[in-house]
Amino acid sequence: MTKLTQKGIKYDWGEKKENAFQLIKQKLCSAPILALPEGSEYFVVYCDALHKGLGSVLMQREKVIAYAS
Questions:
Q1: For residue range 7-63, what is the model confidence (pLDDT) as tens digits?
Q2: In a 3-state reduction of DSSP, which class is residue 64?
Q3: At 4, is the pLDDT very low, low, confident or very high (cuts 50, 70, 90)?
Q4: DSSP character at residue 20
Q5: Can you count the helices (H) and strands (E) in the chain?
Q6: Contact in structure between 46 and 57 (CB atoms under 8 Å)
Q7: What single DSSP character describes residue 33?
Q8: Which distant-in-sequence residues (6+ apart) come within 8 Å of 63 by Cβ?
Q9: Which keywords describe this protein according to UniProt (predicted)?
Q10: Buried/exposed 30-52: b ≥16 CB within 10 Å, e otherwise
Q11: CA-to-CA distance for 44 and 64, rounded, in angstroms?
């Protein structure tokens, strides 16, 4: 779907793009499943910042512990 945002790309909405859109919509509308932290394991923080906002995820062993935005 990201190809649709590129300059000069013909807008052709087919079954593959529709399936990707429906999957993204379902993921955004479903409640996140959070894991409890395990005391002795390392944490990983992923973040992305713009001029008007910030989004971050706290993870441990590839499981989401918390989201922040």
A1: 887 877 889 989 999 999 998 888 888 999 998 889 999 999 988 899 999 999 989
A2: strand
A3: confident
A4: H
A5: 1, 3
A6: yes
A7: P
A8: 35
A9: Multifunctional enzyme, Nucleotidyltransferase, RNA-directed DNA polymerase, Transferase
A10: eeeeeeeeeeeeeeeeeeeeeee
A11: 10
Confidence tier at 1 by pLDDT (50, 70, 90): low
pTM of the model: 0.56
β-pair partners for 58:
45, 66
Compute CA distances 24 → 27, 61, 68, whole Å.
5, 24, 19
Residue owning tokens 């706290």? 58
Structure tokens at 28: 């955004």
CB 22 within 8 A of CB 30: no
